[in-house]
Write a structure and sequence with these properties.
Blueprint: H1 19-30, H2 35-48, H3 54-81, H4 86-95, H5 97-103, H6 108-112, H7 139-161, H8 167-196, E1 220-223, E2 238-239, E3 246-251, H9 277-290
Parallel strand pairs: 1-3
Antiparallel strand pairs: 2-3
Helix pairs in contact: 1-3, 1-7, 2-3, 2-7, 3-8, 4-5, 7-8
């Protein structure tokens, strides 16, 4: 059950319209790592979680917060689009080629399709896709995916922060950066707690017995590049994070795959010479006819 309170988590207002920046903000609204993605990702993870308690409640709580972030960004985009009359833009473009190039950064569908409002698309106008979300049913795998989503999103918000001088927009981005910081730490803490409580272990899924995998290859670093510096990393020697083995470093593969056997000749299709039956018969008839 959902309820909506007509109040933003964090209120911010831009100093002036900026249609070009409104298009840039679309990326963190409807892009692969935008707020729509994480809201839907945490939503589906919570709805599909079959383990009641703190982990399910964590997913519900952050998912609900992220839907609020969707609303905040959509509101800001709408504010950036308000008060920028098309007649003024057209006049500026006609009088100044440089301005025409700048205006080219705007999303014309903001005006044509959405009536000076936000859209569920990225900064290039590509529609948001449900395929962006990760919901595997394995909490440890999903929590690590969630941490990655928050990291990627925070990178993009940080870059956007340096693309504007509008103090109102910066206030909103500053708030989103702070919440991304919290959420990164939350998901990493939740993943660690899952492991400590024995709910899940590395490698994921831990309920698949490693005895059924080719364990001699499980912890080999196979270097297929001509750069050797990777051998200096902790992933090339020493204990593995799952505690089940030791890393080893190898230049190239440690096994060779035998060549496949030659295909069997079907006598119904091929004659005694190995040529297709039809070819062999045609050659035989030609030899009889010519004597050669």
């Amino acid at each position: 059950m959902f309820f909506h309170k007509q109040e933003l988590q964090f209120s911010a207002k831009p100093e002036k319209p900026d249609p070009a920046y409104a298009r840039k903000l679309q990326e963190v609204l409807g892009g692969q790592y935008g707020e729509i993605t994480v809201a839907m990702q945490y939503g589906f993870q919570s709805w599909n979680c079959k383990l009641p308690g703190k982990y399910k409640d964590l997913l519900y709580g952050i998912g609900a917060e992220e839907f609020g972030h969707v609303e905040m960004l959509a509101t800001m985009i709408g504010q950036l689009l308000e008060g920028a009359p098309a007649t003024d833009v057209e006049s500026a473009v006609n009088s100044d080629p440089t301005m025409a190039a700048v205006i080219g950064q705007t999303d014309v569908q903001h005006a044509i399709v959405a009536g000076a409002g936000a859209r569920p698309v990225d900064s290039n106008g590509n529609p948001w896709q449900g395929s962006y979300i990760t919901c595997s049913g394995n909490l440890l795998a999903d929590f690590y995916a969630n941490a990655n989503a928050e990291m990627q999103g925070r990178i993009q918000v940080a870059r956007l922060y340096h693309m504007t001088d509008d103090p109102g927009v910066k206030d909103l981005l500053s708030f989103l950066l702070a919440r991304d910081t919290m959420h990164q730490n939350q998901w990493i803490a939740a993943a660690r707690e899952l492991i400590e409580e024995g709910m899940e272990e590395l490698p994921v899924p831990s309920n698949f017995p490693q005895t059924k995998e080719a364990t001699e290859y499980s912890y080999q670093y196979l270097n297929f590049s001509d750069g050797a510096a990777a051998s200096e990393g902790s992933w090339a020697s020493g204990p593995t994070p799952d505690g089940n083995g030791e890393f080893s470093y190898h230049d190239g593969p440690t096994s060779s795959v035998p060549a496949p056997p030659p295909p069997k000749v079907d006598p119904r299709l091929y004659g005694t010479t190995g040529k297709p039956n039809l070819v062999e018969k045609a050659e035989s008839k030609l030899k009889d006819a010519t004597g050669n």
